[in-house]
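Thread: Copper homeostasis protein cutC homolog, structure

OP (GT): Posting the sequence first so everyone is looking at the same thing. Length is 243 residues per the record. Can we get the structure tokens written out before standup tomorrow? I want them in the notebook alongside the other entries.
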Amino acid sequence: MSTRAVLEVIALDAEDAVAAQAGGADRLELVTDMAADGLTPSAGTFGAIRAAVDIPLRVMLRLADGFAAGDVGRLVEVAGRMRDAGAEEFVLGFLDSDGGVDLDAVERVVGVLDGCRWTFHRAIDRAADRDALRKTLDGLPGLDTYLTAGAAGGVDDGLPVLLAEAERRGEPGYEQQVLVGGGLRLEHVPRLVAAGVDAFHIGGAARPEGWHGPVSLAAVAQWRSVLDGDVLGSAAGAVLDGV
């Protein structure tokens, strides 16, 4: 059985996707408009990326900045169009005005995904009660991952929460894979791996030139090397910082 850690990289276009796969990414998160922290890409962009690489793609379902669902009917339509375009994995997550999970919005969107696998994204880091959110969502079809930094401020702030939640894996509400991302740096990796975390998500860390530049094959390869245990985290942590 493979023990290879999952490395997920944000891709905005086919060029990003090709570089990420060549660098050793296992999966891509597809978004557009990082000024709004990542919105749903067009079906055309999805198609171009799907034609360019053969690793799994998770498509963001989010139409506006923030974690409110907004127009749920439109979200459902967009999710349906992405399914029609061939998308098979997704990323989503919505909160209500009190910081609880917007279960109605989540269930309506998930209802058109036909059991596809999906990630509940960093809305969990803004939730009023993380444990309650997990238990509310437990059992929804297709939910297999939580993308989290452990805190709204990023992994530096959330590391204690991430380590504590990793210890609970397998409990009700904690069966899903923890995908760590948000201010993640290579220096965080050794402690997270030691705690049993086996999935990592990078965006800005794959782009030495910033979000205006493309994904760097070399940057992704550096992360792949560290996750595979080929480079000591303490040495690699000085190389790349990222979001």
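GT: Both are above now. Quick notes for whoever picks this up: Residues 6-236 form a domain with the TIM Barrel fold (CATH 3.20.20.380). The longest helix spans residues 72-84.
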